[in-house]
Amino acid sequence: MNKEERLSLGPLTTEEEKHYMARLLDKVHIAERTRRIQTTDFIDPHLQQLSNRLIINYPEVNFIFDGGSINSERKRLIICPQFCELASNEEYVALLDCEGNCPPQKYIAAKITHRDFLGTFLGTGIRREKLGDIWPLEKGCVIAVAREITDYLGQQPLKVKGVPLQIKEIEPGSFQTEDKDSKIIETTVSSVRLDAVAAAGFATSRSKLTREILAGRFKVNWQEIARLDYQLNEGDVISCRGRGRVVIESIHGQTKKGRIKLSLKRLN
User: Distance from CA of residue 255 to its chain's centroid?
Assistant: First the structure.
């Protein structure tokens, strides 16, 4: 990576970022040299931003991000030579409908969450990077996956919390995403520091979250943040391994006692 490319990216703060960008640069050069399409695994919005900043320095290649749905968060990056036509994104991303094969009452009683589905798919030995977004539904979920693992998943006897799953591929345009596993929280905080907002969003004491934040378990907008006093803004996404995510939907101003009013959306 030359000096101009490094400056365009800004500081790469983690080893994950450094390794990913080195691999991405290799793929860009391969696409330039061989005139063959290259793809990444599924990446989060932060790595998508870094990828965009790098690839715009290479006019000889085109690129798109695709996660199977217009509202996807995790997406694959597809890199192709400038004069190569991308026939269909479906060659690289597939949407699978995973329906619970049980009576509705049993499925509801199981209280299956996004985390449960993710654990089931990872339990097959597939790496997280091969899985895109998971959208829980009334009796199952839809998941975006890398095309190359669809046959393997179809051969697995998948169960989530004891409920067997029937899997079939669906057309990307036939599915509309919804927030089925989320709730809105109206609250007030003393400040918009990470520890204060996270405590309100995850309904946990600030003292308990302090260790987790300092241990690097928290991310803001998909970047690891280990500062308790990190200042947040409207629209920021807070995530923590094992807890889920909290989105700052809006900041409403202050109460008469000077506390800050927030609308948060928690996704489990």
Answer: 34
H-run or E-run covering 195:
helix 194-201
* 181 pLDDT more than 50: yes
Burial class (CB in 10 A: 0-12, 13-18, 19+), 155: exposed
Token match 């089925």: residue? 180
Q: Kindly tell me if the per-residue pLDDT of 177 is higher than 90.
A: no
From 70, 17, 22, select the one nearest 48 (Cα to Cα): 17
Give the tens place of pLDDT for each residue, 68-127. 988 889 999 999 987 776 656 688 999 999 999 999 889 989 999 888 999 999 999 999
Does residue 4 carry a pLDDT above 60?
no
- What are the percentages of helix, strand and coil residues in the chain, rounded to 5? 35, 35, 35
The per-residue pLDDT for 174 is: 72
What does the alpha-carbon distance between residue 84 and residue 124 come to, in Å, rounded to a whole number?
35
Q: What domains does the chain contain, in order, with CATH numbers?
A: 3-87 (3.30.1370.160), 93-174 (3.30.70.330), 182-267 (3.10.290.10)
Longest alpha-carbon distance in the chain: 65
Q: How confident is the model at residue 7 (pLDDT cuts 50, 70, 90)?
A: very low
**Of 92, 88, 59, which Cα lies nearest the Cα of 75?**
92
With beta carbons less than 8 A apart as the criterion, state whether 251 and 192 touch.
yes
Tokens for 71, please give them.
């509202």
Q: Are 205 and 220 in contact (CB under 8 A)?
A: no
Token output for 251: 């900041």
Pairwise CA distance, residues 54 & 68, whole Å: 23
pTM of the prediction? 0.77
